[in-house]
Specification:
single chain, 189 residues, alpha+beta, 3-stranded antiparallel sheet, 7 helices, Transposase_IS30-like, Transposase-Integrase, transposase activity, IS30 family transposase
Length: 189
């Protein structure tokens, strides 16, 4: 039977709304409706807002404030705190100045903004014998960059035998990377 959604979506639905190892659509609907109504009734009172503002004044992170509020019986999510600070900022408030650092925004991938490497040959243009893994000696190289310039890993993969080699380098400098590749391939003449 195909229902048009991924396995992970089905798994999440069963985990969220299943009871005692079984799943009933009618029960799931009731549970979902009850959760929605409970969420709509949530009210963040002036005491909680006070705790949030005091915590921000003490330079606590929204995550820390959220944990303290939960412990004292006034639960509030860190996301709500970030939204509250942003709303305050939009209304001319200064609460955002108390954040240690701005909330990190989700960054999409690089997409097509990257400029192509000059003289690079597209993977679609490689010979058929390489594409079909018809001979030994065709290596694919890649460079996996570490976080914020903490080095990189040079990877080599032989297409036919599927031998994989890796070596850590401390920068993505062309000289260092090419030296690493030469030393990795020195045993494969």
């Amino acid at each position: 039977i195909r229902i048009g959604v991924s396995k992970s979506t089905v798994s999440r639905e069963v985990r969220r709304n299943g009871t005692d190892g079984s799943y009933s659509a009618a029960e799931a609907q009731q549970l979902s409706r009850a959760r929605r109504q409970a969420a709509a009734k949530r009210f963040i009172g002036p005491d909680t807002v006070f705790y949030v503002e005091v915590g921000l004044g003490w330079k606590w992170s929204p995550e820390q404030i959220s944990a303290v509020c939960r412990r004292i019986g006034s639960p509030v999510s860190h996301e709500w705190i970030y939204q509250y600070v942003q709303t305050d900022k939009a209304n001319g408030g200064e609460l955002y100045r108390h954040l240690r650092q701005g909330k990190r925004r989700y960054r999409k991938g690089y997409g097509t903004k990257r400029s192509p490497i000059p003289g690079a040959v597209s993977i679609e243009q490689r010979p058929t014998v390489v594409d079909e893994r018809g001979r030994l000696g065709d290596w694919e190289a890649d460079l996996v960059l570490g976080k914020q310039g903490t080095g990189a890993i040079v990877t080599l993969a032989e297409r036919r035998s599927r031998i994989y080699l890796t070596k850590k380098v401390f920068s993505k400098d062309a000289g260092e990377v090419s030296s690493a590749i030469i030393s990795m391939l020195s045993g494969y003449k």
